Amino acid sequence: MFEDAGRLAQIIDHTIIRPDATIDDVTRACEDAKKFGFACVVVNSCHVSRARQLLNGTLIKVCAVVGFPFGASTTTVKIVEAMEAMKNGASELDIVINIGMVKSVRLDFVEIDVKNIIAMTPQKVHKVILETGSLTDDEITAVSKLAVKAGAEFVKTSTGYGPRGATVKDIRLMREAVGSQCRIKASGGIKDLATVTTMVEAGAERIGTSSGPAIMEEYLMKRK
Predict the structure, then answer these.
(1) How would you label 98-128 residue by residue, b for 16+ Cβ within 10 Å and e otherwise?
(2) 8 A C-beta contact, residue 159 and residue 180
(3) Catalytic positions, please?
(4) What is the pLDDT along the chain (224 residues), one digit of tens a residue?
(5) Is this model's pTM higher than 0.90 or not?
(6) Distance between terminal CA atoms of the chain?
(7) Burial of 91 by CB count in 10 Å (0-12 exposed, 13-18 middle, 19+ buried)?
(8) How far apart are CA 200 and CA 94, in angstroms?
(9) What element of type H or E holds 216?
(10) Sequence spans of domains, the chain
């Protein structure tokens, strides 16, 4: 499926968003990203400036999570977090939807929430995290369509802190909902090359994982 290691690396968002992630952990993640040529490094907002400095001179983007991991902050708080991350050097933003409002059937609130964050952080790549493990099939479909309407470039499956990670069924539901209007990021529980391949075959175009280096090493070993 992947013609060379570079093609594989360019779909990986190398992720270091554990609550106990240290400065040294973030530094290692950035060094790994430079070694393999990942698409971006995903960090908590307090580490954006440091990651941007570490990745200066490369094409690797810095991505910040917003409203992570529950999505339950007010819209204003999310906007401030997103704008601060943008100011500090983030090129991409992974935004958690307000899951409780989805379950309350307040999709109007969810759409306004996402739309306002996107509007206040122009010219950035916005990935809307659905937390698919918490949603029904109908909710996944509805929120995927909502994210497109709000202006997102990606819909993303999971935070990695919800009931479960990405599944092939999630990806297919999301692809059916968004068609060619939006890209899909699979994340949560993706730790090996076989799972990456399965997710891409199902329709994912970006992979979020904290196991990027291990996946790359597995790929390189198989190519020997």
Answers:
(1) bbebbeeeebeebbebbbbbbebbeebbbbb
(2) no
(3) 94, 156, 185
(4) 798 999 999 999 999 999 999 999 999 999 999 999 999 999 999 999 999 999 999 999 999 999 999 999 999 999 999 999 999 999 999 999 999 999 999 999 999 999 999 999 999 999 999 999 999 999 999 999 999 999 999 999 999 999 999 999 999 999 999 999 999 999 999 999 999 999 999 999 999 999 999 999 999 999 87
(5) yes
(6) 16
(7) middle
(8) 19
(9) helix 212-223
(10) 5-223
**Exposed, middle or buried, 157 (CB in 10 Å: 0-12/13-18/19+)?**
buried
The CATH number fitting domain 5-223, selected from 3.10.28.10, 3.20.20.70, 1.10.760.10, 3.30.230.70 = 3.20.20.70
CA 92 to chain centroid? 9
Do residues 44 and 23 make contact, with C-beta atoms less than 8 angstroms apart? no
